[in-house]
Amino acid sequence: MGNVAGSAVEERREAAVLPGYERQGGATPVVYPPGLRERAAEARDVLAAGSAALSEILGVEPPELEALLVADADWGRAPRENERPYPPGLPYFTRATRPPALVLPETLSSVFRPRTAATGALVLWHELAHAFLLREPLPRTPAWLRELLPQALSAAVARRTGLPLEKHLEKIEREPGFTARSFGGRADADGQMAFQNLLLALGDAAVEEFGEGFLRALAHALWEETDVVGEERAQAMLADSLGQGGREWLASRPEF
Q: Rounded to an integer, what distance in angstroms lies between the CA atom of residue 115 and that of residue 9?
């Protein structure tokens, strides 16, 4: 019986390692093709900084996790839950391996805009935040709440590490009348990016106004929630986590 279980575990672990790939140890080990050794080291350092910050902000230990940096030519063979590969250049978190993995592309999709000195790290921290949050079952929530928390966490990590987030936010193109709650969830890549940028700006503004404490409060409230979180409940959870003046502040924000 033990051998059968062990074999299954071994099969899942091998799925994370593509032929010829090597491994760098660290807080979040990185598996990578030999030609991307320097990129792997950069990703390892960015993830280490993010993991330490997120652990402190959320008050939890980092999840068991690896990163898999995939060469463009190997993208179709990267581990995933579904049969069809994810769109090229879009990082994602998967439990198809043991331990779970952040799958990172060699070439980041051009959909990620604006392209600044902060873009790469923000993308990594966003996916890392998802991995932290999915350590416990999460209830179904409106799309804006599900994505706001990782974006706000990314902004908080950027502030802690001195990443030039303000310059990044200045380059975001704002669409009049487009709000987090008006986004329907089904959109093309440009629409999805506009939605994520809106949430990044809102999350950063919330961290500046209320501090990091609301991030821990909101995450723990979601981990403790057992029912589906509807629109009204989602707004109340966010406002309560912000604390005094939270509801009024949200009502004043054009992004919301």
A: 39
